[in-house]
Amino acid sequence: MQVQNPHSIKYNGTVQGLKYIWRTEGFRGLFKGNGTNCARIVPNSAVKFFSYEQASKGILYLYQQQTGNEDAQLTPLLRLGAGACAGIIAMSATYPMDMVRGRLTVQTDSSPFQYRGMFHALSTVLRQEGPRALYKGWLPSVIGVIPYVGLNFAVYESLKDWLIKNKQFGFAEDSELSVTTRLACGAAAGTVGQTVAYPLDVIRRRMQMVGWKDAASVVTGDGRNKAPLEYTGMIDAFRKTVRHEGFGALYKGLVPNSVKVVPSIAIAFVTYEVVKDILGVEIRISD
Q: Which domains are assigned to the chain?
């Protein structure tokens, strides 16, 4: 939905899109790029959580030194900063895999050239478009990941702290929240983060398609021009998207993305903490 040609709309909604992909590409079409996504998400999540803990410790130490209060805790704004650092590091480390995942997902049977898989896509992009092509859309990703990951961590941790401190609501027992309550906190964090950062995600995905001459379904400038629309940069991509398709185009695909992201963020946060409990690791995100 983020990258389909506005002059040749194949589906206008989530259910219609799922039905179209099922009808034209079968069950496997719904999972295109999933292998690359799984290969990307493992190091991405590991680096993100590790970076957040390290950034939190460093920022908290500096904050305590500045205030002279050894018992000072991270404020929501400082958590936002730690989360932003973690997001930038994790995203940058795995960005080439995200770029080829986007192309693997978008290609269809009518694409003149087919990527056979993640490594074939990486080598082909390198050979045909050069190393810089693997980082197309990196800038809007960096800008988008600051509110996205930053708000995820900040909202999740702040909500948990607030619920624990306000025991009259009955959500916490012995300074612990139930798995269900933590899932709800994670869902709220995912909703806020992805909604704020979503336009940058659309622009990132469109910039990733630039230069791919064999793409079968990418945004075009007008009905007569069948060549993919070129962007000179992030601002140009924003301007052309809004001019050709309106402001609403910046939120294309928001509904299916919410259905995916909100439970994903919630499960990721809670699983991370539960696994650390099982492994006997004492320091947790909230500590």
A: 14-279 (1.50.40.10)
